[in-house]
Specification:
This protein is α+β, with helices and mostly antiparallel strands. It contains 15 helices and 15 strands. It has helices at about 130-140, 160-185, 205-255, 260-270, 280-285, 290-300, 315-320, 325-335, 345-350, 355, 380-390, 395-400, 405-415, 420-430, 435-445, and strands spanning about 5, 20-30, 40, 45, 45-55, 60-65, 70-75, 75-80, 95-100, 115-120, 320-325, 360-365, 370-375, 450-455, 455-460. The longest helix has about 50 residues, at about 205-255.
Length: about 475
């Protein structure tokens, strides 16, 4: 069976639909095609090996650095089963999917329906248990029906099992909510499960066992109600993220005066809090947590939000190609909402960028400060801006990009009468005071500037000793 090609982000992560959420990631997974060669129609194979399988709320994704990236739409899933591992359980865990794709499921399908089987072989330590445990619930929720109509999915053909499952979940949530409201309005007499007075039937070993069963049932009921509330909260959060994307696209299309520009900047700041639909977590990624966190962080820093054509763009681009690690951690956590990530995990993720071939590096300055730097960042451009600032107090002129040779001529012509502090450098470079100081010290180490640490603070001037 031939699979649909999956679009990847610049860092190599799957490009998710708006509102699509990753549920489980499984490493070291093979895809086998029992009915013959499959995968890519241009280059069919009998097996796709050593990939990462991801279960989302709308698709099953499979990505590999060497064999490509593909997906299977969940609406096309007609049946799945875990295969036997043999008498001595020597085979790797396997799950077989029966896929029945029609034009109603995917608009790219030809008039003839596509049917086939795909077998996923799990060679990682976790086996297939996380997928087998999560897939029935995802199919029952039918979250793909709530995706925007502009994505690949149209109205999927309903099935009795998934429809009934959805109704059951809705009914349970509604009944739980109404039960909580009625309980809050008037006190209820203690039920058989929650009564604390002594009964004759509670005496002896049998009574102890009955009490334990009642306590266990009450705990299960409380957990079910709590998770129902959490699922409702997640649905609302997903809707808010979708709304944020629409607002950002509308802001990008708007044009106006100074007031509109200020309003646009305010809205852009608000939307930073709603930036990531499906943040990578330890629960979903497992052993691949730092690798997937590294890729998602790179996408967040490098790729502008969908539909954003404003001057803000991607955070790293808006900062001129360099961000302090602290600033990158703050804005990334702000975009993740409640799924916060620790500074140590962010640092480990940044250190994986060279290994993953991502065009960002973690730069360590001589003072020990850490910064996230894009691959096309050029120190000569920063040096040129600082030298132009030595020649004139015109901030706008210093912000423009000039060749380094021209900036040196302007600094020489000024005669060294001007000096620059950290505050002026930060205003011209559009960066934090910490990074502005590091840029000045780096320019000094390259021989362009000399320092004057006096009563007015740390100041830098053009180094005329270089011309002697």
């Amino acid at each position: 069976m031939f699979l649909y090609k999956l679009t990847l982000t610049p860092s190599g992560r799957p490009l998710l639909f708006p509102g699509e959420v990753e549920v489980v990631l499984m490493e070291a997974t093979d895809l086998e095609f029992p009915s013959g060669a499959g995968g890519d129609a241009a280059n069919p194979r009998e097996k796709l090996t050593a990939g990462v399988l991801t279960l989302t709320t709308a698709r099953i994704l499979w990505t590999s650095t060497s064999a490509g990236a593909y997906f299977v739409p969940l609406p096309a899933m007609r049946h799945h089963e875990e295969l036997s591992r043999g008498m001595f359980r020597t085979k790797s865990p396997r799950v077989r999917f029966e896929v029945f794709v029609t034009p109603d499921v995917h608009p790219a399908v030809q008039p003839t329906s596509a049917t086939g089987h795909v077998v996923a072989a799990f060679r990682g330590r976790a086996g297939c248990d996380p997928l087998v445990a999560s897939l029935p619930g995802i199919l029952a929720q039918r979250a793909w029906t709530r995706l925007p109509p502009t994505v690949w999915l149209t109205s999927p053909p309903p099935t009795s099992s998934t429809t009934n499952g959805t109704n059951a979940v809705t009914t349970t949530t509604t009944n739980s909510s109404s039960h909580n409201k009625s309980t809050a309005q008037q006190p209820q007499p203690p039920s058989e499960e929650t009564a604390t007075f002594f009964r004759a039937s509670d005496a002896g070993v049998a009574g102890i066992l009955r009490r334990q069963e009642r306590d266990s049932a009450a705990a299960d009921r409380d957990l079910s109600e709590a998770f129902a509330d959490l699922n409702a909260l997640k649905e609302k959060a997903s809707a808010m993220v979708s709304l944020a994307g629409k607002l950002k696209a509308a802001v990008a299309r708007s044009e106006g005066g100074a007031d509109d520009k200020r309003a646009t900047e305010d809205v852009h700041g608000w939307l930073l809090s709603l930036g990531i639909d499906s943040p990578v977590t330890k629960e979903s990624a497992g052993a691949l947590y730092h690798q997937q966190l590294s890729r998602q962080l790179a996408d967040f820093l490098l790729v502008p939000p969908t539909g954003d054509k404003s001057s803000h763009g991607a955070p790293l681009t808006a900062a001129g190609g360099m961000l302090s690690l602290v600033d990158a951690w703050c804005i990334y956590n702000r975009a993740r909402g409640t799924a916060l990530v620790s500074p140590e995990d962010v640092r480990k993720a940044c250190e994986l960028w060279p290994k993953l071939g991502i065009p960002i590096v973690l730069r360590t300055f001589s003072s020990g400060s850490l910064a996230v730097v894009s691959g096309d960042f050029d120190d000569d451009v920063v040096d040129a801006k600082l030298l132009v600032l030595m020649a004139s107090d015109d901030v706008e002129s210093a912000r423009s990009t000039r060749p380094l040779e021209e900036a040196i001529r302007l600094a020489r012509r000024a005669g060294g009468l001007r000096s620059v502090g950290v505050t002026e450098a930060a205003r011209v470079l559009g960066t934090s005071l910490e990074l502005a100081r590091e840029h000045l010290l780096c320019a000094e180490s390259r021989g362009w500037l000399c320092r004057d640490d006096g009563g007015s603070g740390l100041r830098f001037s053009y180094n005329f000793f270089r011309d002697l």
